[in-house]
Structures are given as C-alpha cells and as structure tokens.
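> Could you send the Ste12-like transcription factor prediction when you get a chance?

Sure thing. Input:
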Amino acid sequence: IHSCVLWNSLYHITGTDIVRSLVFRFQAFGRP
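Output:
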C-alpha cells in the first residue's frame, strides 16, 4: 500500500511537471 501511494504521488508530480513544461513551451514559442 505504501509503495502504491508513493507511485501515485510520483506520477502526480511527474504529470504536473510535464504540464508545466508544455505550458512554458506554449508561452515561450506560441507567440507570433
């Protein structure tokens, strides 16, 4: 159970980092 919670938190952190990187890319390179 502990490992499952750890994996869930790790997956959530990784997901948020990916979203942040995507948003940063759109803000940086999405401007004409």
